[in-house]
UniProtKB/TrEMBL annotation:
Alphabetical GO biological process terms: NAD+ catabolic process; NADP+ catabolic process
A Pfam match: NUDIX
Protein name as catalogued: NAD(+) diphosphatase
UniProt GO molecular function: metal ion binding; NADH pyrophosphatase activity
Record keywords, A-Z: Hydrolase, Magnesium, Manganese, Metal-binding, NAD
Encoding gene (name): nudC
Transmembrane is among the record's keywords: no
Catalysed reactions, semicolon-separated: a 5'-end NAD(+)-phospho-ribonucleoside in mRNA + H2O = a 5'-end phospho-adenosine-phospho-ribonucleoside in mRNA + beta-nicotinamide D-ribonucleotide + 2 H(+)
Database matches in InterPro entries: NAD-cap_RNA_hydrolase_NudC (IPR050241), NudC-like_C (IPR049734), NUDIX_hydrolase-like_dom_sf (IPR015797), NUDIX_hydrolase_CS (IPR020084), NUDIX_hydrolase_dom (IPR000086)
Domain of life: Bacteria
CC cofactor: Zn(2+); Mg(2+)
Species in which this protein is naturally found: Nocardia aurantiaca
EC number: 3.6.1.22
Amino acid sequence: MSGFQLNAVPVLSRTSLDRAEHLRSDEQALKEGWAQAKLLRMNKRGQVRIDNGTVVLEAALTIAPERAPEAVFLGVDGETHLWAVRDDTIEGTLADLRAYGSTLELDDFGTGLLSTAIALLNWHDKAAFSAVDGSPTTSANGGWSRISEAGHEDFPRTDPAVICLIHDGGDRVLLARQHTWPQGLFSLLAGFVEAGESLERCVEREIKEEVGVDVREIRYLGSQPWPFPRSLMLGFAAVADPDQPLAFHDGEIAEAHWFTRGEVRDALAAGAWGSPTGATGGEAKLLLPGSISIARTIVESWAAEG
């Protein structure tokens, strides 16, 4: 049973958004499309206005007669251009992508729209000056690059990170809790890929640093964008010896335990942490991440084996 695969596509990887890359550099097409375009307004907390659980897209012309310089082109819905802009003045009922499955209801199109907007706008917030020459930058190519005064072009940054389900080759899985998480909330181990490091080596290093165990039989499972602020999560599974002592070397992990497949199944049946019908703390022994995380998909896939 150690060779399990993902039994579903992670939520944020299911996007059906047409990014229409060919339009990004076509300034005339973008200018003409603004008249019928729809605009997503998002504040710095990643929140958007919702109506009955769905994201509100406003007519771009009601916001500005011409394209705002810092608006980012997300793609198209049929012939309609879709844009996003940072706006901290939005009011009404607000929600962010983390509320998926609770107050926010999204289809594959909506998840792609929000995850792309969050990642792009977060990058623009940090890219006002060129990392190469230090001069101010301006948005270009529909918001998919920035060009400095000296002519250097920067592109949206994505930080690769690994996330790994550690199991014993049988019916036990190792889950961990960070210090800042609520009591009872456990998840997979994860960490950012360092310079000059392979994904597999990153899995080995991060797990050794965080819980002190050695892993083998590292296998790639799948990936998912994680725009908080701009990561790509690369999912893996690996085997470890449950008799090897746990040691929390880097101070990030508060506790970690081996759980049985039955315990994990019971926790999954109780619902995701923070969902209105799921576990909300209390005396629950094990709570698991929400549905938008690839961690949830990986755990569900492992639990379904056998």
